[in-house]
């Protein structure tokens, strides 16, 4: 299979994947924003309407906020996933440029002699390139959040918690009215 066919398959996969990722990202963001609003409502209900101490109301609001933070982590990972086609294109262009420069250097006869010092220097260069690659891909480590089974279970539980938070908030609204 030649390169244009692979590129076309990759573009097809991205074209099918990105609308799904965008839709899920929007829904997770909505759930997180709803959770934050309900967390604020619970704090107001506890502190102002039920006259709990500020410390107690803040502790309850902080505990309620933890699953929402998990949802925000998923939202962040999904938002980064939407930028992968752009990043992949930039990385491909950079790699083509580097390979072209190396081939031109070899054709021009600019090949370095092998020796102990040049080998040590090459190892140092490989190490620095590896650290640069780690820094480049470091912002995409959060994609691991989307493939880690424990993290996925935690995300689903967080979504269920936001649903429970909606029910509790509705009950609190009814109690506040009566």
TrEMBL record:
<keyword id="KW-1133">Transmembrane helix</keyword>
<keyword id="KW-0472">Membrane</keyword>
<feature type="transmembrane region" description="Helical">
    <location>
        <begin position="152"/>
        <end position="177"/>
    </location>
</feature>
<protein>
    <recommendedName>
        <fullName>ABC transmembrane type-1 domain-containing protein</fullName>
    </recommendedName>
</protein>
<feature type="transmembrane region" description="Helical">
    <location>
        <begin position="56"/>
        <end position="76"/>
    </location>
</feature>
<keyword id="KW-0812">Transmembrane</keyword>
<feature type="transmembrane region" description="Helical">
    <location>
        <begin position="28"/>
        <end position="49"/>
    </location>
</feature>
């Amino acid at each position: 299979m030649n390169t244009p066919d692979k590129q076309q398959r990759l573009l097809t996969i991205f074209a099918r994947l990105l609308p799904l990722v965008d839709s899920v990202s929007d829904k997770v963001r909505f759930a997180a924003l709803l959770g934050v609003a309900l967390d604020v409502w619970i704090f107001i209900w506890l502190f102002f309407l039920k006259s709990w101490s500020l410390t107690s109301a803040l502790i309850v609001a902080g505990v309620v906020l933890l699953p929402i933070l998990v949802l925000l982590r998923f939202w962040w990972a999904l938002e980064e996933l939407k930028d992968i086609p752009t990043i992949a294109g930039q990385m491909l262009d950079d790699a083509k440029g580097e390979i072209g420069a190396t081939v031109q250097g070899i054709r021009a006869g600019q090949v370095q002699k092998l020796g102990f010092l040049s080998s040590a220097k090459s190892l140092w260069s490989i190490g620095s390139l590896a650290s640069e690659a780690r820094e480049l891909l470091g912002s995409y480590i959060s994609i691991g959040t989307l493939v880690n089974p424990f993290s996925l279970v935690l995300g689903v539980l967080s979504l269920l918690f936001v649903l429970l938070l909606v029910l509790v908030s509705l009950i609190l609204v009814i109690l506040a009215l009566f």
